[in-house]
Automatic annotation (TrEMBL):
<keyword id="KW-0963">Cytoplasm</keyword>
<keyword id="KW-0808">Transferase</keyword>
<dbReference type="Pfam" id="PF05191">
    <property type="entry name" value="ADK_lid"/>
</dbReference>
<dbReference type="InterPro" id="IPR008144">
    <property type="entry name" value="Guanylate_kin-like_dom"/>
</dbReference>
<feature type="binding site">
    <location>
        <begin position="88"/>
        <end position="91"/>
    </location>
    <ligand>
        <name>AMP</name>
    </ligand>
</feature>
<dbReference type="InterPro" id="IPR033690">
    <property type="entry name" value="Adenylat_kinase_CS"/>
</dbReference>
<feature type="binding site">
    <location>
        <position position="128"/>
    </location>
    <ligand>
        <name>Zn(2+)</name>
    </ligand>
</feature>
<feature type="binding site">
    <location>
        <position position="95"/>
    </location>
    <ligand>
        <name>AMP</name>
    </ligand>
</feature>
<dbReference type="InterPro" id="IPR027417">
    <property type="entry name" value="P-loop_NTPase"/>
</dbReference>
<dbReference type="InterPro" id="IPR006259">
    <property type="entry name" value="Adenyl_kin_sub"/>
</dbReference>
<keyword id="KW-0067">ATP-binding</keyword>
<keyword id="KW-0418">Kinase</keyword>
<keyword id="KW-0862">Zinc</keyword>
<feature type="region of interest" description="LID">
    <location>
        <begin position="124"/>
        <end position="161"/>
    </location>
</feature>
<keyword id="KW-0479">Metal-binding</keyword>
<feature type="binding site">
    <location>
        <position position="151"/>
    </location>
    <ligand>
        <name>Zn(2+)</name>
    </ligand>
</feature>
<comment type="similarity">
    <text>Belongs to the adenylate kinase family.</text>
</comment>
């Protein structure tokens, strides 16, 4: 049976970067609520009686999308996966409790990165509008300015990577998601990784844990 890996970290800690590589090298499904919600951001949730009518409005304000919407996405994705690396979930204690009900975990990793570095990484991130490849204007620039190395697509800034929304996302993270990190730490299952090394350096540490899981 494939491994069940959970990758935790603040916005910009490198969860997406590491998860993609883990999924490819360990033959795991990459389950990411951020990408799933971006692909469904105009989904009509008006009949569910929430504050907003689509995920887009929550995401652009830096707030969390309601648990009922996200829990359903995760449950379906995990049921379909043999092994997986889960990224972007759980984001609050309620989601963590739900996760415990629907699956078991072989490893829980936390990418530790300072706040100053997080802001720099997110505001400098560029993504390919066609294939989703990830760049950074300074740390991982494309060969040609504004053009994806992989597919030639246009590189854009994510709508929630403006400085104002990044600050709000970090506030939401401290309030809602840090308690989730503390919960796994208190359970004694959290493996903390220095997320401020180069992407290759972080991957070496992450891969060592996953190999032994
Ligand atoms: P989501 O897409 O999950 O965003 P996030 O958690 O804020 O994480 P990011 O994807 O922004 O960052 P990352 O850690 O993956 O970093 P990356 O590898 O790209 O969520 C977006 C929104 O969706 C939320 O705000 C919320 O509204 C909603 N949502 C999602 N999940 C939800 C849930 N469970 N419940 C409710 N709502 C939910 O790296 C960042 C940058 O740094 C890149 O440019 C990269 O090139 C660079 N970089 C990476 N590693 C390094 C390194 N080692 N050194 C230097 N640069 C690096």
């Amino acid at each position: 049976m494939g491994k069940h890996i959970l990758l935790l970290g603040a916005p910009g800690a490198g969860k997406g970067t590491q998860s993609k590589r883990l999924a490819s090298e360990f033959d795991l499904e990459h389950v990411t609520t951020g990408d799933a919600l971006r692909a469904n951001k105009d989904m009509d949730i008006s009949d569910m009686d929430f504050e907003y009518d689509t995920p887009r409005e929550y995401m652009e304000s830096g707030d969390l999308v309601p648990d009922d919407v996200v829990n359903e996405i995760v449950k379906t994705a995990l049921q379909e996966a043999d092994g997986y690396v889960l990224d972007g979930y759980p984001r609050n204690i309620e989601q963590a409790e739900y996760l415990t009900e629907i699956t078991d975990l072989d490893a829980v990793l936390y990418l530790d990165v300072s706040e100053e570095e997080l802001v720099e990484r997110l505001t400098g991130r560029r993504v390919c509008d066609d294939c989703g490849a990830n760049y950074h204007v300074e740390f991982a620039p494309p060969e040609e300015d504004g053009v994806c190395d992989d597919c030639g697509g246009e590189l854009i800034q994510r709508e929630d990577d403006t400085e104002e929304t990044v600050r709000e996302r970090l506030t939401v993270y401290h309030k809602n998601t840090e308690p989730v990190v503390n919960h796994y730490r208190d359970e004694g299952v959290l493996v903390e990784i220095d997320g401020e090394q180069t992407p290759d350096g972080v991957f070496d540490d992450v891969a060592e844990v996953v190999e032994d899981a």
